[in-house]
Each structure stands twice: as structure tokens, then as C-alpha cells.
Design a protein that fits this description.
This protein is α+β, with helices and mostly antiparallel strands. The protein contains 8 helices and 8 strands.
């Protein structure tokens, strides 16, 4: 918890303790170098986020320990040479998180928050949409699902693209290639795996499907054929789970089939329409920016309306549709396996010929 903000974070901060001080962090400091604001802020944030009440400063000269000093976490902002306002830091954190909540709203997408050195603007990039554009793929909103019954079925080849469409350039090759395409696709795959490992509802399955489809659209299958294969097989498992009874296949009813009229499929708007900070944006933009000076004031983004699109639609309960989609993804996965085997065989034959050539010489 950070004020009234709840978040899940990762930390590699070592924590020590004894009977008298059960929870402290340890920092090494060169006595020749005075502490500065950024260092003090770093120590304070680490302790605050890990709920560590104290820090032990270990001062040394040329590697030889001179003394220790125990400092409470709440006293770090007032240390000589590193004074800063915790209130302003908390205002910035709250406003940044509110900004992210209002803009990073597309399910199955990966975002990058960036501020250049000496720049007064913080920018948020939708890496998934940008990568799709650079690959020649039309970005899909609302999770990128366009293969429900009655729509255009996915054609053989890459998911969501017809056989007549030219393949996108391989990630990491050629000029003007988006450097985030491969890491974003791998991240989407890992997120989908994590969701499927702990899935509890059909909404989880819908999100995992959106992630896997975006992954397949972006992945360089020549470089990562095993990831593309696994993604297709995971999608086939989503459409037709392994425990499905072939004699009486039954799948969860969608919201429309239950007569819910779409309730719960989207997200309600939060807050009012009044804007209290200046944001440069376009309705369908893949980039948003905000002036850093507005982040220091409390509640700068409290009035923003959350512009979340609808959540990815649940997978249809239509048996024929599910079986067709599952078979298509199994076919794609098997094609990748065949290509892998052929590539492996070709490499073995090339190696064998090279060895024979060396023996003859």
C-alpha cells in the first residue's frame, strides 16, 4: 500500500534483522561521497514499498568499514544533502498511476511509460499497437478478436490474416523495425501462460486468448518457432479443453446466450468528464503525453474518465465454431513442428557433408 494506492511490485532489496531490529535494509556508503537527493529518494522508496521501517548506513573508506548509522525510513527525506518532500513524491505517484489507469486501457496490450532526459513531458506508448502497425497488421481494439461465428474465419497462415496477405517483415530485421516487437510478443505469451496456469473464469480465458492472438501476430516465427507453436496449441486448448467429452461437448454460455445483454462485459466509467491536467491525445492514438509539472499537484487526474474499451468477449459456446478454431490452431502448430523437423534434418545433413569433406581432405 502506498497511501491509498494498492499495487503489486517486485523488489530485490535484501532485508536483514535481529531480535532488536527485526526488519532493516543495509546500504553501503563511501564517506568521501556525500549523499544526494536521488540516492536518498531511492533508499526511501525502496524501504517504503517493502514496508521496511529502518535502514542501516554502513560508511567505509577505501573498503574499510568506519561506522554504522541506523536511520528510520521516515527520517530519510530530511537527511542532510538529500532533502525532498514526501508529499510531492506521493502526489506524483498518485497522478502517474491515475494517468496510467485512464490510458493503459486495452486488454492484452503492453505499454511503455517513458521520459527523456531533460524533457518536461512523460509519454505513454502502446507498444502492441505500434508493433502491429510496423508489421503491416491493422491494430485491433478490444483484444483483437474478430473470428466469432458469423464473422470472417481465420485463414491458414498467421492468425487473423488471409493467405493472400503478404507476411510481415521478421522482427529484428530490415530498416525501421520496431525494437519492441519481439520483447512485446514474448511478454504477451508469458502473461497468457501465467493467466492460464491460474485461470478461474471464462473472462480469464478471453483475456488469455487476446494475449495469445496478439503474440502470434507479432512473433517472429522463424526465430521463435517454439513460441509460435506453443501459442497455437494453447489457443486450441482454450477452444476445446482436454477434458471435453467428445460424445457430449458442452462449453460455458456467453453473456449474450445467458441473456445478460452485455452487462459486465465492459467497464464502467470512473470519475467525471472534467479534466484538470493537460494531456495531448487522439481518440485512437497509440501515444499519450502529459506535462510533468502537472504531476506535482494533488488530484491532477482525479477527474479523468477511464476510457477503457470493452473487455475481450468471452469465447463463443458454439460447438462447431470452437472445434473449427481448435483444428486450425492445431494445424498451424503442427506445421511449425514439421518445419522445425525439416530444418533440423537439413542442418544434420549439412553437418554430415561438411564432416565428409573434411575427412576426404
Amino acid at each position: 500500500n502506498f497511501e491509498d494506492i494498492r499495487m503489486l511490485i517486485g523488489s530485490n532489496l535484501p532485508i536483514f534483522g535481529d531480535e532488536e531490529h527485526p526488519c532493516v535494509s543495509l546500504r553501503l556508503r563511501d564517506m568521501k561521497k556525500p549523499i544526494n537527493v536521488l540516492t536518498g529518494l531511492d533508499y526511501w522508496l525502496d524501504n517504503l514499498m517493502c514496508q521496511v521501517p529502518e535502514v542501516v548506513m554502513c560508511y567505509h573508506l577505501d573498503g574499510i568499514v568506519q561506522q554504522y548509522e541506523l536511520i528510520k525510513t521516515e527520517d530519510l527525506p530530511s537527511m542532510e544533502g538529500s532533502r525532498f518532500s514526501p508529499k510531492i513524491v506521493k502526489n506524483i505517484a498518485q497522478n502517474i498511476l491515475a494517468f496510467l489507469k485512464s490510458k493503459a486501457a486495452k486488454e492484452g496490450h503492453t505499454y511503455w511509460l517513458f521520459k527523456a532526459k531533460n524533457d518536461d513531458v512523460v509519454k505513454l506508448y502502446d507498444l502492441t499497437s505500434l508493433s502491429q502497425k510496423d508489421s503491416g497488421i491493422k491494430p485491433k481494439h478490444g483484444g483483437g478478436i474478430d473470428d466469432e461465428p458469423g464473422g470472417t474465419p481465420a485463414q491458414p497462415g498467421r492468425s487473423g490474416r488471409g493467405t493472400d496477405s503478404p507476411p510481415p517483415p521478421a522482427a529484428g530485421t530490415g530498416e525501421g523495425v520496431n525494437p519492441f516487437q519481439t520483447p512485446v510478443s514474448l511478454l504477451l505469451y508469458q502473461l497468457a501462460r501465467n493467466i492460464l496456469d491460474a485461470k478461474v473464469s471464462e473472462e480469464d480465458c478471453a483475456v488469455a486468448r487476446a494475449l495469445l492472438k496478439n503474440c502470434i501476430d507479432l512473433i517472429d516465427e522463424n526465430k521463435y518457432p517454439h513460441i509460435a507453436t506453443s501459442a497455437h496449441f494453447l489457443l486450441s486448448e482454450l477452444y476445446v479443453p482436454a477434458d471435453t467429452d467428445p460424445a457430449k461437448p458442452a462449453f460455458p454460455k456467453t453473456a449474450a446466450a445467458r441473456g445478460d445483454n452485455g452487462k459486465g462485459g465492459g467497464r464502467s466509467d470512473i470519475g467525471g468528464p472534467t479534466k484538470t491536467a493537460s494531456i495531448e491525445e487522439d481518440e485512437d492514438s497509440d501515444e499519450f503525453s502529459v506535462d510533468v509539472h502537472t504531476l506535482c499537484h494533488p488530484g491532477s487526474f482525479s477527474g479523468f474518465r477511464e476510457k477503457s474499451g470493452p473487455a475481450p468477449p468471452p469465447i463463443s459456446d458454439d460447438v462447431e465454431f470452437r472445434c473449427t478454431e481448435a483444428l486450425q490452431h492445431i494445424n498451424h502448430g503442427l506445421q511449425y513442428i514439421s518445419e522445425l523437423e525439416a530444418r533440423k534434418k537439413a542442418m544434420e545433413e549439412a553437418y554430415k557433408k561438411e564432416q565428409e569433406k573434411i575427412e576426404r581432405e
